[in-house]
Write a structure and sequence with these properties.
By secondary structure, the protein is an alpha/beta fold. The protein has seven helices and 15 strands. The protein has helices at residues 34-52, 138-144, 156-170, 281-299, 342-352, 364-368, 395-410, and strands spanning 86-90, 124-128, 149-154, 179-181, 193-198, 203-209, 214-217, 229-236, 248-251, 267-271, 274-276, 306-310, 359-361, 374-376, 386-390. It has a seven-stranded mixed sheet with strand order 4-5-6-3-9-12-13, with helices on both faces. β12 (306-310), α5 (342-352) and β13 (359-361) form a beta-alpha-beta unit. The longest helix is centred in the first third of the chain and has 19 residues, at 34-52. The protein is globular and about 60 Å long.
């Protein structure tokens, strides 16, 4: 079994621009058949009323909702906005919380607490081109989550987003002692399950550590000596039964699908009882995602559980050895190709072909600009710099703002 340590991405990126959708156009015509035109007018009115109300539910298999296009114009205008296309703008109302006052932020992600002097990286807001992401009333969000179970599943990037959401929600809680980890554990990457309960509102925000989503274990008998373990691509992680009966499920994976975490540690791929020594990482990733999709379709009641999948988060290493980490003072003006990812493309394609509704949080491009927001040397005494993980507060807070926009809107809940 190889060492469970989160690190960096060595994958190649693909150049493919996501498609976009524009608002429907209504053309005026002369009145010729009043009953027919009245009927058409009624349909058009209903369509725009749905958009203006703040949600559009994408039908299964439709690419209208899986890639961000179901986010409507939160500023009140009629139309549809791809919330993941835009730019970062300075905003002095950020950050959303103080990491040093939140007991659920890992020390290694609290960059200010670890000596980072500049604060400019905290003052950036994501601005979509044609709409605005709402700023939430925390009390409102807490009430909407009353009695719910929110579950994050994935690697350390998922854990960072989990910590971010908890810290944001805690700013609206008067009794801080009523927010606690259910097993009394400290927040650490070595624990497979962490759950924080908000007792005053009777809900939990949980994290399950599953870096590949599929099972990782011993391989078949009589395998070559270089094979120390395998990923069973056709079997979801054996802790997946714990993810059922949640109200919200948020998945991610990608950072561990690299040669350094797989082949160089003796981990190869397995399908059924067959070892696939020659299988490439992209091919294996696709099979694993298909396994995940099948599990969602056959196991999760999506009438109750809202399912999200967050795409790959780019790193900003200065060279291929991943030993040079240049944390900039401001976001980059150009993504330098990091806005494309094979992993993200695969996620989008798999979800597009699913038979049940899943919302993709396509954060790859927006995160690619943020070379200023990584942990860098402001970790908790680690000897190497870190251009993969993110400071808290920081970029994961914006992921959560978008996630909450989807979650609350799709449930017809007030955003303000």
């Amino acid at each position: 079994m190889f060492e469970m340590m989160d690190s960096f991405n060595r994958t190649a990126s693909f150049n493919r621009r996501a498609s976009s959708f524009s608002s429907p156009r209504v053309h005026r015509r002369r009145w010729g058949r009043p009953p027919f035109l009245v009927f058409i007018g009624f349909l058009v009115f209903c369509f725009f009323k749905i958009i203006a109300s703040g949600y559009i539910n994408a039908s299964p298999g439709s690419n209208q909702g899986f890639d961000g296009y179901s986010i409507s114009n939160f500023n009140g205008s009629v139309g549809v906005c791809n919330v993941f296309e835009g730019n970062w703008v300075q905003d002095n109302s950020y950050p959303l919380y103080n990491a040093s006052e939140c007991p659920f932020v890992e020390q290694g992600f609290n960059c200010l607490g670890n000596g980072r002097m500049d604060r400019d990286y905290l003052k950036w807001r994501w601005k979509p081109r044609n709409c605005d992401i709402p700023r939430f009333n925390v009390q409102n969000v807490l009430e909407r989550l009353r009695g719910k179970r929110v579950v994050f599943v994935g690697d350390s990037m998922s854990r960072t987003q989990w910590e971010s959401l908890i810290c944001f929600l805690m700013t609206g809680v008067e009794d801080k002692k009523g927010v606690y980890e259910v097993n009394g554990n400290n927040i650490t990457k070595r624990i497979r399950f962490l759950g924080v309960r908000f007792s005053s509102f009777n809900f939990t925000v949980e994290f399950f550590r599953s870096v590949f989503l599929v099972q990782h274990g011993w391989g078949p008998k009589n395998v070559p000596k270089r094979v120390r373990s395998t990923l069973k691509l056709d079997k979801l992680d054996n802790i997946s039964r714990e993810w059922i009966n949640s109200d919200v499920l948020i998945f991610n994976t990608g950072q561990w699908w690299v040669p350094g975490k797989l082949f160089e540690t003796g981990c190869y791929f397995q399908v059924g009882g067959s070892l696939r020594l020659g299988m490439s990482i992209p091919a294996a990733f696709r099979i694993a995602l298909d396994t995940w999709a099948s599990w969602i379709e056959t196991t999760i009641d999506t009438r109750r559980t809202q399912v999200f999948f967050r795409t790959f988060e780019p790193s900003h290493w200065g060279n291929e050895t991943h030993r040079h980490c240049n944390v900039t003072l401001h976001p980059m003006s150009d993504t330098k190709g990091m806005d494309r990812s094979l992993f993200s493309d695969t996620i989008l394609e798999v979800v597009k072909n699913m038979t049940v509704p899943v919302t993709v949080l396509h954060v790859t491009s927006m995160s690619a600009f943020r070379s200023d927001a990584h942990v860098g040397t402001w970790s908790d005494g680690q000897p190497v710099s870190d251009c993969s993980h993110w400071c808290l507060p920081g970029v994961p807070d914006v992921w959560n703002e978008i996630f909450l926009s989807y979650m609350l809107t799709n449930h017809r809940l007030s955003l303000r």
